[in-house]
Design a protein that fits this description.
The protein has 16 helices and 17 strands. By secondary structure, the chain is of the alpha/beta class. The protein binds flavin-adenine dinucleotide.
Length: 419
Amino acid sequence: MSDVEHWIRHGVEMRRPLLVKQSLSQSEKVIIVGGGLSGMSCAYRIAQKRPSAEVILIEKSEHLGGVISTWTEEEWVCDLAVNATRAHPAFWRLVKDLNLSKQFQPSRPRAKSRWVLLGEKRHRLSPFTLFKIGPLRLLRAIRGGRKGGVSVAQLLPHKQIADALTLGIVNTTSEHVDADFLMPSMTRFGPIPPLKNSRLKKQIKATYPLFTPKKGAVASFEGGMYSLIDALQNQLESMENVTVITGQSAESPQSVASQFDVSLDSILWTAPVLETDRELTKLSVFAVGYRNEDVAHIDYGYGTLIPDASIPISGILHESDLHHSQRAPEGHRLFRIMAPHARWDGDESKIEESIERLLSGKKPVIFRNLGVQTIPTYPPGYMQGLSQKSIDCSYAGWGVSGVSITHVVDEAERVAELF
Ligand SMILES: Cc1cc2nc3c(=O)[nH]c(=O)nc-3n(C[C@H](O)[C@H](O)[C@H](O)COP(=O)(O)OP(=O)(O)OC[C@H]3O[C@@H](n4cnc5c(N)ncnc54)[C@H](O)[C@@H]3O)c2cc1C
């Protein structure tokens, strides 16, 4: 494949370094550690590309999917982590290859609006948001970002807007987040595309199977994100050259190499990266449902980000507004609440008080604490560090690829292309 073809296939993902040893592709036995979306997609793409290779996937828990999990109760459906995907042809290709096209649909156009709570006021995010930052200040900051290693707070010099963005994506405030990792195109990290950006975008757009996504739109699965995991698991179980082992925790790449009698060259580690000094952040996820008439005053939309640290909630997502498939019983709306542990002490009555103020004074018909999620941190300089890292075995997954599912799914294709 030529450089141009690679860029058309992977887009700006080409700016991200691959932490994969060239020798991995010579292995006849590939051991993949971690059965989240990354490990599963890598197993699928490698086994598909090289039918003669034996692929073994090891997962420490009893089920696959990692952080992806969908809660259901009667007709309520809510994802605990990712609920929808932004557009990327690699993700569309995966959906097509798994025959999931009927269950995969674009988000509802009427749910496009996203808001940020600035003080007591909700501000709708749009190109005019730039005026809140100040176009000249922003331009200067973007130019400064090109030296690399800066934080998102430095790149977007409006503390609340920058915090709202990073809290919504990585559950921490903007001074702690690497701008190269979150927005490599904006900081111009990594290789330069061989085509003009507009031409590249046009060519990428023409490669989407199933349907071409509209600008800014997201898409999701009927039944929630776990539908994807179910289909991937079925696919892996049907492949003769794949073995899935659950309930086995790998201690280290060395221990896995010795257990399976292979060299470190054959190990692909997609579980959280083994660095004891790497901080993780936690957040709790709540599903809150109301009767339509009790939340009629709330505009239809994608959701609201809340940078104000005195409120224990960092985001409210309008689940039933967004998805095409049903997330709430007829006549009801479902909201997903994010409560970062850096702001919330575990007292549920504080969440109830906040939703009463932010959503509705009426009592919700359902209020469920869905559990805790753990998010990796990506401090400033993280991406520069990654690109210079010397590795003992190959690494993939959201610890290294980027935080979203499009990053891990595209990374799996890039890894398999080496085979
Ligand atoms: C709350 C939340 C919201 C999110 N929202 C979005 C969103 O809106 N859009 C988006 O695109 N992405 C979102 N994401 C990110 C997305 O979910 C991740 O990018 C993706 O699921 C990561 O997959 P992974 O396989 O890399 O990691 P994981 O899902 O963490 O999988 C790693 C796997 O490794 C296993 N493991 C760990 N240690 C070992 C060991 N020693 N031996 C064997 N196995 C081990 C774990 O059990 C786990 O199954 C969100 C994530 C969270 C938590």
